[in-house]
Design a protein that fits this description.
Helix content: under 10%
Structural class: mainly beta
Strand content: 5-15%
Number of strands: 3
Number of helices: 1
Oligomer: single chain
Strand order of the largest sheet: 1-2-3
Distance between the termini: 28 Å
Radius of gyration: 18 Å
Shape: elongated
Order of helices and strands: HEEE
Length: about 120
């Protein structure tokens, strides 16, 4: 696999999920504050409005987190293994209206049945 650059300091999985859900709320591009939002301020994409990161026509989305070589707490507690397991947070439909399901990735196992049908 090609090497990937380290994430900038302060970036977290939560921040990446928030970025995937971005619909420009409170910015100059917020469709719910203009005529583009219609009479009820609906932020869904309309012709002529800026393209949002989170689209209602998305079929799925994911945020991947690679594993760490060393556990954050030194490996003494019962949850230290979580720092060493790659996780894919997967969601169906548009990011701004769905839940990200954590899927623990292992090279020697199949995709969970509920996510493979």
């Amino acid at each position: 696999a090609p090497p990937s650059p380290p994430a900038p300091l302060g970036w977290s999985v939560g921040l990446m999920v928030d970025l995937m859900r971005e619909i420009y709320t409170g910015t100059q591009f917020d469709a719910s504050l203009s005529v583009m939002g219609g009479p009820y301020g609906n932020p869904e994409e309309m012709p002529g409005s800026p393209r949002r990161i989170s689209l209602q026509r998305s079929q799925f989305w994911h945020v991947s987190q690679s594993s760490s070589l060393e556990p954050a707490g030194g490996g003494d507690d019962e949850t230290a293994w979580l720092d060493r397991v790659p996780i894919v947070r997967y969601g169906q439909y548009a990011p701004h209206s769905t839940v990200a399901v954590p899927v623990f990735v292992s090279g020697d196992s199949d995709v969970p049945a509920p996510l493979s049908t």
